[in-house]
Amino acid sequence: xxxxxxxxxxxxxxxxxxxxxxxxxxxxxxxxxxxxxxxxxxxxxxxxxxxxxxxxxxxxxxxxxxxxxxxxxxxxxxxxxxxxxxxxxxxxxxxxxxxxxxxxxxxxxxxxxxxxxxxxxxxxxxxxxxxxxxxxxxxxxxxxxxxxxxxxxxxxxxxxxxxxxxxxxxxxxxxxxxxxxxxxxxxxxxxxxxxxxxxxxxxxxxxxxxxxxxxxxxxxxxxxxxxxxxxxxxxxxxxxxxxxxxxxxxxxxxxxxxxxxxxxxxxxxxxxxxxxxxxxxxxxxxxxxxxxxxxxxxxxxxxxxxxxxxxxxxxxxxxxxxxxxxxxxxxxxxxxxxxxxxxxxxxxxxxxxxxxxxxxxxxxxxxxxxxxxxxxxxxxxxxxxxxxxxxxxxxxxxxxxxxxx
Length: 405
Known about the structure:
Elements: H1 3-14, H2 19-23, H3 50-65, E1 68-74, E2 77-80, H4 84-90, H5 99-112, E3 115-122, E4 129-135, E5 140-146, E6 149-154, E7 157-160, E8 164-168, H6 180-204, E9 210-214, H7 220-234, E10 249-253, H8 258-278, H9 296-322, E11 332-336, H10 346-358, H11 364-370, H12 392-404
Antiparallel strand pairs: 1-2, 1-11, 3-4, 3-8, 5-6, 6-7, 9-10
Helix pairs in contact: 3-5, 3-8, 6-8
């Protein structure tokens, strides 16, 4: 470690960290706990809310499965190139995980914890990138600004901004991300309370909460025996529970009041709230009431444009500025192929390709490439231009060119 780094480590260690206030890096976020309407929510308990976990899983999975291409801008046109970065992003970022797993945990950490950081391991001789090592959020102790540069204090040492890939979640300063649960704690707390109450109600209350009426006066010992017998029957396992009472006795169940019923109903509304927090449709969160297969393709388009595209841009731009040499940055860039997400509807995809070909902005060979088919060349590599968009002079020129061949 250089003397400069040692000095920085000394400075950081000498001052207390302000993780929860400045960067939201801590692993525990208590909010709105202890009252009747919400419960304590932290990074672990939030994941027990099915809709929230499913939303994070959906988005992270979508980002992870996209092919990551490396392109070079030549004469204003992007050309795919074979580059070490392409191998790292699509095959093996490090010797411990696949590219899918790496991108999944990066996207998951960025959304759920606010910051996803990976250490860039470079070859000492060639300066090429050998691997990308994910740093767990619990091992990321602080992110701070010093002399106009960002530094990352981790369990493994102090890193500069050039040494890491940093994908930020929601940020109010452009430098450090903040966890979604920091801002969504109240909504998630209500959802968690509704979930806990529903579980408690069906396990402990339901039909098993009530009272026995007797027409005759009973001794305390007799009351105790009846109470024990009824409780034993109603708490027994199994779907069918029958209680036989003596003559003159009646069982009266105590049902939920309106407030309790509304709290259970709140579990349904929390799906919509969590969908807003994650900017994802309720249909993606498996809400059966919003199922509409007639609009499945449009839902996929909306999901891509509204939910995924901001995350795609975060990854593309951070990779573009961190994974290439200073000279390569001028014309090299990373692009995530989002066409993969729209493969499900063959009719819509066919219409899209047809429009692209006959409008002249894609060749048939380029379409074949997107479908992972070999290019043919020749006329299939040419761009078609609709005749009704050409001037008479252009049409005559094309005829003359054909005749001269």
